[in-house]
Amino acid sequence: MSTTSITPDEIAQVLLAGERNRTEVAQFSASHPDLDVRTAYAAQRAFVQAKLDAGEQLVGYKLGLTSRNKQRAMGVDCPLYGRVTSSMLATYGDPIPFDRFIHPRVESEIAFLLKQDVTAPATVSSVLAATDVVFGAVDVLDSRYEGFKFTLEDVVADNASAGAFYLGPVARPATELRLDLLGCIVRVDGEVTMTAAGAAVMGHPAAAVAWLANQLALEGESLKAGQLIFSGGVTAPVPVVPGGSVTFEFDGLGVIEVAGA
Ligand code: OOG
């Protein structure tokens, strides 16, 4: 039982209003230093439940802060997860829907489409065995917090900054690829700015999915066949601005260009 001086519902309502009105909100951890991770996940559940009540579907989960690249960039050193709902799926080739976001940033990920449920205790091999295909993917983050700054508790409540997701044009069985060696090149306006391999995420992107399955089991929840799971950023996030272009090239999984139209 949590004793935090703000309820999950109160937190969710503030975040939902921030998202709806595209206005930054103050970090809860500043005004409520007793906010704990458990309450933050309960707030996330309430935040996502409001979307489901409005007719969206749960399509899967996203991981966050699973690579040192990301942990260093954000100053938070613990992985987390969020929930992905139907309105977050962007169409390949479409520009960023700026009218939905406050201050979007983009980063490269690996997405897993599951063909079987993943039960705990999960491992890299059990995740790979349960995976139908993998995609290169882009996570469009849009923290609802002022200045994109947060603690672990804040960002957990904010559904891991989930904004939108692009899937790349190529789907391949995970067993055809070495996901830990899978390279990704990030180009901003044509210039290479970052490179990384899949191993940046917990040594192997499937290890992040296994971590998620094991975390969810503690909550009585599990990963299901048909769900899409996003690994967490392999590279650090890049702000995307109207008129700019960020390109993500994945070894064997094609190219995703995210244009700020
Ligand atoms: C928090 C969410 C992190 C990732 O892939 O590392 C995340 C953030 O950086 O806004 O999704």
From TrEMBL:
Keyword vocabulary terms for this entry: Lyase
EC primary class: lyase
GO molecular function: 2-oxopent-4-enoate hydratase activity; 4-oxalocrotonate decarboxylase activity
EC number in record: 4.1.1.77
Entry annotated with the keyword Transmembrane helix: no
Organism expressing this protein natively: Nakamurella multipartita (strain ATCC 700099 / DSM 44233 / CIP 104796 / JCM 9543 / NBRC 105858 / Y-104) (Microsphaera multipartita)
Gene Ontology cellular component list: cytoplasm
Keyword Protein biosynthesis tagged: no
UniProt name for this protein: 4-oxalocrotonate decarboxylase
Coiled coil feature spans: none
Family annotation (SUPFAM superfamilies): FAH
Domain named Fumarylacetoacetase-like C-terminal: residues: 85-257
Superkingdom per UniProt: Bacteria
Transmembrane segments annotated in the record for this chain: none
